[in-house]
Amino acid sequence: MIEMQDVYKKYPNGVQAVDGINIRIKAGEFVYVVGPSGAGKSTFIKMMYREEKPTSGSIVIDGVNLSKLKESKVPLLRRNIGVVFQDFKLLPQLTVYENVAFALEVIEESPKNIKKRVMEVLDLVKLKHKARHLPNELSGGEQQRISIARSIVNKPKVMIADEPTGNLDPDTSWEIMNIFEEINEKGTTIVMATHNREIVNTIKKRVIAIENGKIARDQAEGDYGYEA
């Protein structure tokens, strides 16, 4: 599902953020990406949805070579990859329903199908009853659940999560992880960058550790492995 070959990323300021990464992630896997701050995790994650381009090497997701993808095709790529951020990125002027529906409206899905699918994913994240609320009327955990609903409404094969529990309290973080596990069980490949040691050590998944832009560890059912 995801393959990186000899991927390097050097920023104009001379920082070598990613230094020769080679990985394969199979369809349906759940992978944590861990490592110290400044290790290259964010760049690694951003390259998967073409927020950043590698300096050299190839990144292939579901058969699409991101390194050769034309800029005009990037929006289509992002419609097929669900992305969840630490800061939610909801549109404040739109209701919960409208935020989730937006992703389907841009691909001109029929109103009937939009309503059906939006209510399905709101039910999955247990917020159907908040469909008419605005984001600022929700808690941080509820906003993150809406962000997740929006990311999966197009039924993406891959979901990229960048510190999705970073702004949440521990109880809410576990609720979010339960949703991720349910999505993964339905077949979606999940790649999640996180600093949450407890989650990684409790919900055992594959762990890819990045240090100084390189893969330092790649373990099935691995541990977080860093001191707090």
UniProtKB/TrEMBL annotation:
Oligomeric and partner information: Homodimer. Forms a membrane-associated complex with FtsX.
Keywords (A to Z) from UniProt: ATP-binding, Cell cycle, Cell division, Cell membrane, Membrane, Nucleotide-binding
SUPFAM superfamilies, A to Z: P-loop containing nucleoside triphosphate hydrolases
Pfam families: ABC_tran
One record GO biological process: cell division
Protein name listed in UniProt: Cell division ATP-binding protein FtsE
Residue ranges of every copy of the ABC transporter domain listed in the record: 2-228
